[in-house]
């Protein structure tokens, strides 16, 4: 994978190269890497340049600098720096699970032409669900995060509704889980990065971001998993209503991990949205 040195450290990314339909940047969530988008990349790569950065959210393979700001806003700033360093312009920015992309409008949004939010942290749903609250709580107890992460060594525990199993309608092959959690289970520096992110959690992070979203004057699509239990569809509808050019749609047969559960439907919605918004 190509990589690029940024202020916080070196990150990896994938880039399909030129596409006549413009540039789509896909942003993953907590403890996922670029592979969560693989099926969607395959759907889009013939017509778009698709770029997927691996952000320092737990499944990254390169630890960040000890001085790096790994708060939610710090990670959003890292994403903005990534867009600048690759000189990506008129980007369709697509977010899943984490709320990172919401922290750029009104702050560092000059490279964003369109915003797409798919089943993600938003408004007062942060940290989201049982899973999110458990991670934050564990990070604040000495040794707690390390102990909680051990559950991902056991397929049955990882598949439980209170764990990764609750984020998908179709289930996740355990080899994917092993890939995503290998850095956290084998590298203390990666666990340190995730712990710093979790310990910086502020309940009002996305409520404050919502005030800036009210003034985001570009096309926005909120595409929510119809069967999402961790990020309730009601949150998605509220999010779409506050965006001046927001539209809401639900992706059938999908939980939080929309690009895993129904990438074909998400690709169709993205193509339609990009075409209709010019």
Strand elements, count? 8
Q: Please report the number of helical segments.
A: 11
> How would you describe the shape?
globular
Adjacency order of strands in the biggest sheet: 1-2-4-3-5-6-7-8
Q: What order do the helices and strands follow?
A: EEEHEHEEHHHHHHEHEHH
Proportion of helical residues = 25-40%
N-end to C-end Cα span: 31 Å
Backbone CA Rg: 17 Å
The overall average pLDDT, rounded, is 96
- Largest beta-sheet details: 8 strands, mixed
Oligomer: single chain
Instruction: Please mark out the parts with pLDDT under 50 across 5 or more consecutive residues, or reply none.
Output: none
Q: Beta fraction of the residues? A: 15-25%
Structure classification: alpha/beta
Which key phrases capture this entry?
single chain; 278 residues; alpha/beta; eight-stranded mixed sheet; 11 helices; 17% strand
In short:
By secondary structure, the protein is an alpha/beta fold. Helices cover 37% and strands 17% of the residues.
């Amino acid at each position: 994978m190509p990589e690029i040195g940024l202020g916080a450290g070196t990150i990896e990314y994938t880039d399909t190269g030129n596409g006549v339909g413009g540039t789509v940047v896909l942003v993953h969530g907590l403890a996922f890497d670029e592979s969560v988008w693989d099926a969607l990349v395959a759907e889009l790569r013939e017509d778009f340049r698709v770029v997927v950065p691996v952000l320092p959210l737990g499944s990254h393979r390169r630890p960040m600098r000890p001085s790096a700001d790994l708060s939610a806003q710090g990670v959003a700033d890292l994403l903005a720096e990534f867009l600048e360093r690759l000189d990506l312009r008129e980007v369709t920015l697509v977010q899943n699970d984490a709320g990172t992309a919401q922290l750029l409008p009104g702050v560092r949004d000059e490279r964003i032409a369109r915003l797409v939010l798919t089943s993600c942290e938003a408004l007062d749903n942060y940290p989201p669900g049982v899973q999110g609250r458990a991670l934050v709580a564990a990070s604040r107890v000495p040794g707690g995060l390390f102990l909680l992460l051990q559950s991902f060594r056991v397929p049955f525990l990882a598949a439980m509704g209170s764990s990764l199993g609750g984020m998908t309608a179709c289930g996740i092959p355990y080899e994917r889980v092993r890939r995503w959690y290998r850095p956290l289970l084998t590298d203390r520096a990666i666990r340190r990065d995730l712990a710093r992110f979790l310990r910086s959690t502020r309940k009002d992070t996305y409520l404050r971001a919502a005030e800036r979203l009210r003034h985001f004057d570009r096309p926005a699509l909120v595409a929510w998993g119809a069967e999402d239990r961790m990020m309730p569809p009601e949150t998605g509808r509220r999010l779409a209503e506050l965006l001046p050019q927001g539209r809401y749609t639900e992706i059938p047969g999908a939980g939080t991990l929309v690009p895993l559960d129904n990438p074909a439907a998400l690709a169709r919605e993205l193509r339609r949205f990009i075409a209709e918004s010019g």
